[in-house]
Amino acid sequence: MNPTVPMQALPPPSRAAFLLDFDGTLVDIAPTPESVVVAAGLPATLLALRRICGDALGVVSGRPIDQIDHFLPAIPFAVAGEHGIAVRHRPDGAVERATLPDLPPDWFDRAERIALAHPGVRVERKKAGFVLHFRAVPSLGEAVRAEAEALLASGAPGLFHIQPAKMAWEIKPDGVDKESAVRALMRTAPFAGRLPIFVGDDATDEDGIRGAKALGGVGFRIPDDFADPDAFRAWLSRLAQTAPGAAAWEG
Questions:
Q1: Could you tell me what percent of the chain has a pLDDT over 90?
Q2: For burial by CB atoms within 10 Å, which of 46, 73, 128, 161 has the most?
Q3: Domain count across the chain
């Protein structure tokens, strides 16, 4: 067990709800978003943990929900995607989307021009914004941010902001983040009445950690509480060995 995350820091299984980030937390960061690899054994670990916690296991990610479904099919009970813009409360449920401002019509084209001006930078389009990835050329991070800030200043004042992520800058609407996603998921069964355990790895996850703590739960961050995703997966695996119905976590 990781010495910085003692068992007594966790709510008991009967009251715990796990809300977990995906990239950099459940899976290692990869050169491109589509090239991540789900470690052998992780699906079984998550399904076991879900059984122990009465289905109260969700993924809260910056990715769209369909990408989480691709990598973790039928594994989390609930998924919040796009940093809380889209929320699906149960496996067979509808996707609820927040009401958001329209992205200025020329911003996608301008984002593509930023990428073309900086070889190695790529644009990921989202329904309510876009991401400028500079993982292949980390030295260009500040230059890309400066151009993203100039784009942001050109229109839609007060409606969008730049969200730092792992080797990326995301232009996204104000007012929706991983804290709002945590609060939305915790309002419905099987999460309602439980205490959230949120785990993430980057700046966007600070919102989720704050939301979990505000609801009486706990939050952990990689690399502060776990050295890396592999250490976190090993910790989850040990939790998943707890017998269903146990009064406390084993390990």
A1: 73
A2: 46
A3: 2
**Rounded Cα gap, residues 76 and 69, in angstroms:** 9
**Active-site choice (21, 23, 69, 202):** 21
Q: Domain boundary residue among 173, 189, 204? A: 173
Please state, in angstroms and rounded to a whole number, the distance separating the CA atoms of residues 184 and 72. Answer: 21
* pLDDT surpassing 50 at residue 219: yes
Helix, strand, or coil (residue 167)? coil
Supply the range of the domain harboring residue 206: 7-98+176-239
Domain co-membership, 235 together with 114? no
- The confidence band for 57, taking pLDDT boundaries of 50, 70 and 90, is very high
One domain, residues 163 and 64: no
At 3 the pLDDT is 47
As a whole number of angstroms, the distance between CA 171 and CA 148 comes to 8
183: Cα separation from own chain's centroid: 14
Q: Is the model's pLDDT at 5 over the cut of 50?
A: yes
Residue 206 lies in a domain: yes
Find the CATH number of the domain harbouring 181: 3.40.50.1000
The predicted model scores a pTM of 0.83
How would DSSP label each residue in 12-79? Answer: PGGGEEEEE--BTTTB---SSGGG--PPTTHHHHHHHHHHHTTT-EEEE-SS-HHHHHHHSTT-SSEE
Active site residue 102: no
Using the 3D structure, point to which of 123, 141, 173 is the last residue of a domain.
173
Question: pLDDT tens digits, residue range 64-81?
Answer: 999 999 999 999 999 999
Check pLDDT > 60 for residue 175.
Answer: yes
182 and 80 in a common domain = yes
pLDDT (mean) for 126-140: 90
